[in-house]
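Narrative of accomplishments. A recurring question from our advisory board has been how the design workflow behaves on a single, concrete structure rather than in aggregate. To address it, we present the structure tokens for one chain from the evaluation set, followed by the sequence designed for it. No filtering or post-editing was applied between the two.
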């Protein structure tokens, strides 16, 4: 998995700590495979101007379907959610919950980008 993000900061900019919310507990495999590397890569590509503080296990919102709403409310800056939980808000993504729609995650993601 790779993550490419580009940011430009003025010399007077101050560092920003982003709040990452997810409903799984700290030992969940997504933490080691996605969330921690995301934070590390973001800090690297931003020259330390952006860092990520994780709030696992529903610390900011214990209801998985409400992860998107905490973004809108400014409680979190980044949140993990599942398409099935927000189908009414993002109906196109709901197609990915149907088995065998895409050959793999990469194909499914590319199809969503084209939609």
């Amino acid at each position: 998995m790779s993550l490419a993000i580009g940011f430009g900061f003025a010399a007077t900019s101050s560092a920003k700590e982003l709040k990452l919310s997810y409903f799984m507990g700290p030992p969940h495999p997504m933490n080691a495979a996605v969330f921690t590397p995301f934070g590390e890569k973001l800090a690297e590509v931003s020259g330390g101007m952006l860092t990520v503080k994780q709030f696992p296990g529903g610390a900011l919102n214990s209801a998985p379907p409400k992860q998107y709403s905490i973004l809108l409310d400014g409680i979190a800056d980044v949140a993990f959610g599942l398409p099935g939980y927000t189908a009414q808000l993002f109906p196109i993504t709901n197609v990915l919950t149907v088995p065998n729609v895409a050959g793999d995650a990469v194909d499914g993601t590319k199809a969503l980008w084209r939609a």
